[in-house]
Amino acid sequence: AQTVTQSQPEMSVQEAETVTLSCTYDTSENNYYLFWYKQPPSRQMILVIRQEAYKQQNATENRFSVNFQKAAKSFSLKISDSQLGDTAMYFCAFMKHLGGATNKLIFGTGTLLAVQP
Amino acid sequence: ETGVTQTPRHLVMGMTNKKSLKCEQHLGHNAMYWYKQSAKKPLELMFVYSLEERVENNSVPSRFSPECPNSSHLFLHLHTLQPEDSALYLCASSQDRQGAFGGELFFGEGSRLTVL
Q1: Which end of chain B, C or N, has fewer beta carbons within 10 A?
Q2: What are the pLDDT digits (tens) for B61-95?
Q3: Which residue of chain A is at minimal alpha-carbon distance from B88?
Q4: CB A103 to CB B94 under 8 A?
């Protein structure tokens, strides 16, 4: 079974600094997707960044980038120039294809990030 | 207006009550999901519907009963719940294509359920 592990329940960073959130996963599949989702205090989960497993190049989205190490099954999120609005719960997730047109997103326990002014 | 709307936002019910959670997506997606979010636990996938057909049921107790009358609406009917069922219930939708995956899930804001 696929599992996703986030070993940092809480983290804190000063505004404008850089922070890295860790994530490891376990799977025997070769083709899959990895995601980081953000859940601000308003609770709606939104996508931060997505990585396709067969792509070696790390995904980047503005201030957000990932360090994808497929052999190590590691998928960390780096947030540069942290802003107060980045304060949220961050979830790492693994997408498994169920067949046909159906997918399954498996989440970690989350990391609560607090950006301090 | 968000793409995925959930009602009610908050619900308090007794263990003998029957209530329903509603989810509506305005994104034209063909798959919908129910997740349960409890403190300090990973989000638990409960049900997946693809083209209105249930394709995944993660050993969810029968006191939770999903219904997907069309591709835009998803319900979660609740009956004789237990206090441990108190949690945030999240609905999500996605546009899945045969032979390809990796599409983003869009989430609603959730329904906070408290069972007394």
Answers
A1: N
A2: 999 999 999 989 999 999 999 999 999 999 999 88
A3: A43
A4: yes
